[in-house]
Amino acid sequence: MEVDRRLFLATLGAGALDLMSPEDKAEALEHYMEGKLDDMVSARDGAEPMLYMPDGEAIALAELQQEGSRSPRGTGRLFMPRAQEFAPMSEKPTLAEFFEKRFAPANHVLQSATHALETGQPERTILACLMHDVVLNLIKVDHGWWGAQLIEPYVEERISWGIRYHAPLRFYPDESVGYEYPELYNRIFGEDYVPEPYITKAYEFAKDHRYYMEARMITVNDTYAFEEGKVVSIDPFIGIIGRHFKQPKEGLGYDNSPSAHMWRTIAHPNRPL
Ligand SMILES: [Fe+2]
Ligand SMILES: [Fe+2]
């Protein structure tokens, strides 16, 4: 994907770059690219972007922007202005239903999982790639950690572990698997980019861990998942989800797991309190 530096910087607002930490900048860039992919898919609908308030009132996004409103950059997509009301969820929603009604178009994670599938990687890696960024719909801050917690009760440890540490590992190359430091980060933020100390610590911990490659392969597949115009589908992954994601019989959000509330929040972003 081509990133226009000026357009990207414009989304951050005047002067914001000076106030942002290097980690904030890298997050902002990645989410800008993912958002752009999804926007291109959504744009086919042709609808004017609207913000649906909790009481059902709809406000045109253009109207809000005129007033200079700005959501914090760590806000998940589900809480941003949107073109359509949320589709109602069933009583016992499955992961596939979340993909269809809350994560869609999910182009980036589907591309990443498709790359893992097409290059013959293990099913657990394919599932990890499929799930590695879905939590961005809920929250963007520290998305590796949030994303791991979201699925931890339902997958083998290696999958959620990999998702947790893909976030810090992005910033560190590993020649053994052909993962180079993303040139894009250099181009946008300059050569002197340095991750925050807690990111460095997490990387130091992860690189000597027996599960290191679980996280590393997510970063590898990540770099092949920003292709414009790529058509992808959840269909090839339904079987893998069935084999590796322990779908609760009560439905995601209603099984009293440690992350059930996160799934309920994703299912009902309009529900206050
Ligand atoms: Fe990510
Ligand atoms: Fe990603």
3D structure, described in words:
α9 (157-169) packs across α12 (212-222). The chain is built from 14 helices and two strands. It starts with a helix and ends in a 6-residue tail after the last helix. The mean pLDDT is 88. It has a two-stranded antiparallel sheet. The chain is 49% helix and 2% strand. It is mainly α and 273 residues long. It has helices spanning 5-12, 16-19, 22-42, 61-66, 95-103, 107-118, 123-131, 143-151, 157-169, 183-189, 197-207, 212-222, 238-244, 260-267, and strands at residues 50-52, 58-60. The protein binds fe (ii) ion (FE2) (2 copies). One fe (ii) ion binds at residues 108, 132-133, 222.
SSE layout and pairing:
Blueprint: H1 5-12, H2 16-19, H3 22-42, E1 50-52, E2 58-60, H4 61-66, H5 95-103, H6 107-118, H7 123-131, H8 143-151, H9 157-169, H10 183-189, H11 197-207, H12 212-222, H13 238-244, H14 260-267
Antiparallel strand pairs: 1-2
Helix pairs in contact: 6-7, 7-9, 8-9, 9-11, 9-12
Bound molecules: fe (ii) ion (2 copies).
One fe (ii) ion binds at residues 108, 132-133, 222.
Share in helix: 40-55%
Largest sheet: 2 strands, antiparallel
Low-confidence stretches: none
Q: Tell me the strand percentage band.
A: under 5%
CA radius of gyration: 18 Å
Residue-averaged pLDDT: 88
